[in-house]
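Key idea: predict the complex, not the pieces.
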Amino acid sequence: MTGLAAPTPAPTPSPRPGRAALLAADPRTRKRNAAERRFRFCGVMAISIGLLFLVVLLAAIVSKGAGAFRQTFIALEVELREDTLDKNGNRAPEDIAKASTFAYAPLLGDALLAAIRDNGITTELQTRKEIKPLLSASAAAQVRDFVIANPERIGETVAFSVLAASRVDGYLKGRVSRDSVARSKNMDARHLDLIDALRDAGVVEKRFNPAFITGTDASEARPEQAGIGAAMLGSFFMMLVVLLLSLPIGVAASIYLEEFAPRNRLTDFIEINIANLAAVPSIVFGILGLAVFIRFAHLPQSAPLVGGLTLALMTLPTIVISTRASLTAVPPSIRDAALALGASKMQAVFHHTLPLAMPGILTGAIIGLAQALGETAPLLLIGMVGFIASTHPDGLASGFLDPNSAMPAQIYEWAKRADPAYYERAWGGIILLMLFLAAMNITAILLRRRFERRW
Amino acid sequence: MPFVKPITTALAGAALCATATTATARDNVQIAGSSTVLPYASIVAEAFGENFDFPTPVVESGGSSAGLKRFCEGVGENSIDIANASRAIREREIKVCTENGVSEIIEVRIGYDGIVFASDINGDAFAFTPSDWFLALSDTVLVDGVLAENPHTTWDQVNPSLPARTIRAFVPGTKHGTREVFEDKVILAGCEATGAFDALMAAAEGDEKARKKAAESACIALRTDGVSVDIDGDYTETLARINATKDAIGVFGLAFYENNTGTLQVATMSGVTPSTETISTGEYPVSRPLFFYVKAAHIGVIPGLKEYAGFFVSDEIAGPDGPLAEYGLVSDPELAATQSAVAEEQTLDADM
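Result:
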């Protein structure tokens, strides 16, 4: 015992010959320090490469897509001639509606010719037919809608700001060059000279175009009119279905699995399958949606309801996994305390565990929704891609059931089209989609920051 | 139980929606089919929605065959009213239609679509004949009078007047209607012109008809050594491939080319430059008619269906100065006959 009580004095380290003092690093330390420096350098490099890619990507998207938010307009004083628009002169709505957009086109042509004359521009293009390529086909419809809404203005000269054709817009944005126009059959250099002169006179101007964000898709003959608004509503209704279905079902399923279900082979099996489902490629859910919702249940094709149901299937596993993770993160002491004070199991879960797990659940749900919002593959199979979303849904039932597109599907559709003007709109659509995704992810982060509790 | 309520409401909502679809009458025209006809159909649908009191028709793509399949599924609100097709309906499809109760079909020819060969704007210009394409792309050609595996690697080996460029072509995949026209009007024509058709027919066995058929399918078999690449996607994909491979030639629709004259130059075929004029006169050989098919049983049930069909073929839309011609459709010289056929609701059976 005494031997233990009196420890042998520790051997004093005797400096070995050639060994440096504490302040100077020995080779081994230097080696370790170098390894650490290398590792840090690699880390910094990895992050900088990642940031570089991000910056390049964002710069590419913004530089290619920013143009879609601005559009070229032509200011015209259109004379609403009674002899063409209301031949009977009685202002009866049905008579006015009989004048088709083809009757309005000459009025617009005359108005543009008048604008050219009034501004003292000399050009070889003297006829309505020759200057027709400058105006968008949507202009006639715009004026017609105005006349049908205000029949009393027939006979007056009214100022309109109409869309210019996409080639004109492309020229002012630098997409259409004099070289490429030389080979086009509808336009030539004289048109470009005229556009330059009209721009100097202030008749043609490029400005912010809210219709790109709110409008509907257009045909391939008039890219200048196309907007992503209808597809945005389609996405909105789809997300509504996803939220209403996958959040309650997912949360209820995970609460039961996590808090109530007995641990046995069956629950293990279910658990493994949920994890597997989360890794299933999204196109598989599209095939499932096609087989079950459209072929079997006969729900309408291309409807946001079906899109939402399909995407809800895809989002469910994500929500279940994140909910279970956040339920597990609540310390057992909270449950124990509640049970000890006489709460039933359900009270303990709903009054104590669930509120504490809520921020995590919401974060998971929002990230799942964001994933669903950007998903295109399942929509391919249920007919939401390749569909021309040319009308806004009117009302709730029509929003869910009428054929519509979704934002990523609309972008894909635009990227496929022949006119290069649609290419720019596809990039513009990507900007909007990214803004939505960023907003959702930021909300998720804020929720977590605001409500997260640590133990 | 705060979570039980939303589930039940959601389920009830879904059930309500499901019943609502079968209950409400459809008031818009539904169209599906060829992606070649899609741009034209959407241009017409847009103008139709603007000028009539009917809602804008719903237009979907998916391909001629898929569209006709949906068209032939039956009569009723759940089936489409119009199928767009870049080829005429086949006997087999008419049979399926009749079996499903779709016995009255109105065929409407809207005009012609040209198929053009285009290459990068900064490359060499090409002037082809069908024989050049056959000699460049077929897997068996006549070499010194004997059938042999295609030995050609550059265009000047095919035809000394062509530039000395590596042969590389992007042709539409077999699921496209365009492929059929390309095979028929270019490869097969070249096969016959070079004499390979007769040689193949002589080599084949069986009776006259079987030998002819064997020779035809041997003619249109393209080489598989990577010189000819099938593009299953859209023309935009072909364009992207040409941007990446500068000396390649791609097959496009005339409308697509006319919208991309800034990046593509078009090749002549047998000395004729493709344009709406040369196609309508028949000088340019590679073209095909475009159609849409109307379910006669739906006329009067679906509001606006007949009006849409009539509007589509009206002079102001499908005529030579209309928006469709402006976009690239070659208008039909016999449009007036089509207009009266639509007005009288002439069905396919009537003229057979």
